[in-house]
Specification:
The protein is of the alpha/beta class. It has 2 domains: about 1-130 and about 290-320, Quinone Oxidoreductase, Chain A, domain 1 (Alpha-Beta Complex), CATH 3.90.180; about 130-265, NAD(P)-binding Rossmann-like Domain (Rossmann fold, 3-Layer(aba) Sandwich), CATH 3.40.50. Helices cover about 30% and strands about 25% of the residues. It has 10 helices and 15 strands. Strands 3, 4, 5, 6, 7, 14 and 15 form a 7-stranded mixed β-sheet that branches. Strands 10-9-8-11-12-13 form a 6-stranded parallel β-sheet, with helices on both faces. The protein has a two-stranded antiparallel sheet with strand order 1-2. Strand 12, helix 8 (about 245-255) and strand 13 (about 260-265) form a beta-alpha-beta unit. Helix 4 (about 130-145) packs across helix 5. The longest helix is centred in the middle third of the chain and has 14 residues, at about 130-145. It is globular. It starts with a strand and ends with a strand.
Length: about 325
């Protein structure tokens, strides 16, 4: 089968199209013919081994996992003898968690993984781009116990996590302010944000507004300034934080007089979460945002574009 393989860390050019062995499902696994995947910020960090801590988990000198990609949409081609949840021919979408491997034509998954039937109303590309931002936003909003009527600010509202966070926060009944650049204001409004702040023209930390929850999806926000705009018992979500931001956030939660809580770290998700996202898609309350679509053969080009940091929503990869 065709797959994008990398055997060393580095620039997008380390991603090579190769023929590799097609996997065979074990007794509790399903084999999925992948029709679409996506390039996310996490893929770029793993490819570059940036931050350096990536090497401690994924290979000190060279990557242990040679096929990246954590999201997918496709159809089940075959199943193991013990599989009961799915059948051959089912169209499914989901998230691989830490097993990766979706930059390929096929992948085996345990049937109890973060997988759900694909919504029938959307394409494979539209389905594939939902799980990364969707599970991240859902994980943190659930941890924040978001309540109806709370004021939530989403910083980086036009990215993969940001577009999902705006829509999910609205679903939970929050009053949502999105922060993005000038070119993305209309997009964020179209996702349901009650207010949109163009960060090139206005600093949200200096307009006198306060919020119950501030969700930084891109790790480009001043933590110290943001703390001043949180209400007492407010929550600061740092979903894209590096080690230094995690330390800064933890220290702030200990020392801040407003008794704020900081949420960061690895996310967890399950089939239940993917099914929840599917329900929202079916109800028209969660929609995909795709900036560009590339073929598998154009993976290096797709990575180069994502690395620039200006994508709107997601980058889809079509696999023929």
């Amino acid at each position: 089968m065709k797959a994008i393989v990398y055997t060393q860390y580095g620039s997008p050019e380390v991603l090579k199209l190769k023929d590799v062995e097609k996997p065979i499902p074990k007794h509790n696994e399903i084999l999925i013919r992948i029709r679409a995947t996506a390039v996310n910020s996490g893929d770029v960090r793993l490819r570059k081994a940036d931050p350096f801590a990536v090497r401690l988990f994924f290979g000190l000198f060279k990557p242990k996992t040679n096929i990246l990609g954590s999201v997918f949409s496709g159809e089940i081609e075959s199943i193991g003898s013990g599989v009961q949840r799915f059948k051959v021919g089912d169209e499914v979408f989901g998230h691989t968690d830490m097993s990766f491997g979706t930059y390929a034509a096929y992948k085996c998954f345990p049937e109890n993984g973060s997988i759900a039937l694909k919504p029938t109303t959307i394409s494979h590309q539209e389905a594939a781009v939902i799980p990364f931002g969707g599970t991240t936003a859902l994980h943190f909003l659930k941890k924040a116990s978001i309540q109806k009527g709370q004021k939530v600010l989403v910083f980086g509202a036009s990215g993969a996590v940001g577009t999902a966070a705006v829509q999910l926060a609205k679903h939970f009944g929050a009053i949502v302010t999105g922060v993005c650049s000038t070119t993305n204001v209309d997009l964020v409004k179209s996702l349901g944000a009650d207010k949109v702040i163009d960060y090139t023209k206005e600093d949200f930390t200096k307009n006198g507004e306060t919020y119950d929850v501030i969700f930084d999806t891109v790790n480009k926000m001043s933590i110290s300034d943001s703390l001043q705009t949180l209400k007492i018992y407010g929550i600061l979500i740092l979903s894209a934080a590096g080690f230094s931001e995690m330390v800064q956030g933890t220290w702030a939660s200990i020392t801040n007089s407003n008794k704020i809580k900081v949420l960061t770290g690895m996310i967890r998700h399950s089939a239940e979460d993917i099914n929840f996202l599917k329900t929202l898609i079916d109800a028209g309350q969660l929609k995909s945002v795709i900036d560009r679509t590339y073929s598998l053969e154009q993976m290096a080009e797709a990575h180069a574009y994502v690395e620039k940091g200006h994508k709107k929503g997601n980058i889809a990869i079509e696999i023929h």
